[in-house]
Design a protein that fits this description.
heterodimer, A: mainly beta, 6-stranded mixed β-sheet, 11 strands, globular, B: mainly beta, 7-stranded mixed β-sheet, 0% helix
Chain lengths: 111, 113
């Protein structure tokens, strides 16, 4: 069964803090996605990675394929980073590869 | 920046009515998906569509649901005889190939009363 687990479920941080959100998945994947969901509900793709590490601005995503684990880091967190961060796995298979979603981590950054 | 467009943004419908949710994918994308998110829950896969046919569907996607790409651009999700438990946010997502970044629409919030 394809499961994606995230931790923590909720996270409150002071502005400027370094944030880490963790994601574990249960089956082999072709890619791991990190997504951001805003309070209005819209979903934005942050990263798609299949190995190693990616960086975009203050955001860094890493993945360890052997351990089936990925992390999302936010450096110098800011109140505008407050959102739900979702990890989603994409399986190896032919045809369209749908995403399997974690339950999300609700991040609140306090000024 | 290319974007996926969904309409309507909100829809309220009476139980038993049919609704059609519309999505305009990014023009060169080949893979299309519908997902839904019941309030307070995680996003769930409904159906994937590739090469003008359903590629895979979840257990949720029963005979009540159908998808089509009627004019080669719009991608629609039809829900027949809506039930209260169909109330959710429905997201369309597209990819240009299998293992690339997924682009999501802003969602349609469906409320069945």
């Amino acid at each position: 069964k394809n499961e994606v687990e995230q931790s923590p479920q909720n996270l409150t941080a002071q502005e400027g803090e370094f944030i880490t959100i963790n994601c574990s998945y249960s089956v082999g994947i072709s890619a791991l996605h990190w997504l951001q969901q805003h309070p209005g509900g819209g979903i934005v793709s942050l990263f798609m990675l299949s190995s190693g590490k990616k960086k975009h601005g203050r955001l860094i995503a890493t993945i360890n394929i052997q351990e089936k684990h990925s992390s999302l880091h936010i450096t110098a967190s800011h109140p505008r980073d407050s959102a739900v961060y979702i990890c989603a796995s994409q399986r190896k298979k032919t045809g369209a590869n749908n995403l399997f979603f974690g339950t999300g981590t609700r991040l609140t950054v306090i000024p | 920046e290319p974007e996926v467009t969904q309409t309507p943004s909100h829809q309220v419908t009476q139980m038993g009515q049919e609704v059609i949710l519309r999505c305009v994918p990014i023009s060169n994308h080949l893979y299309f998906y519908w997902y839904r998110q019941i309030l307070g829950q995680k996003v769930e896969f409904l159906v994937s569509f590739y090469n003008n046919e359903i590629s895979e569907k979840s257990e949720i996607f029963d005979d009540q649901f159908s998808v089509e790409r009627p004019d080669g651009s719009n991608f629609t999700l039809k829900i027949r005889s809506t039930k209260l438990e169909d109330s959710a946010m429905y997201f369309c997502a597209t990819q240009d190939s299998r293992n690339t970044e997924a682009f999501f629409g802003q969602g349609t919030r469906l409320t069945v009363v």
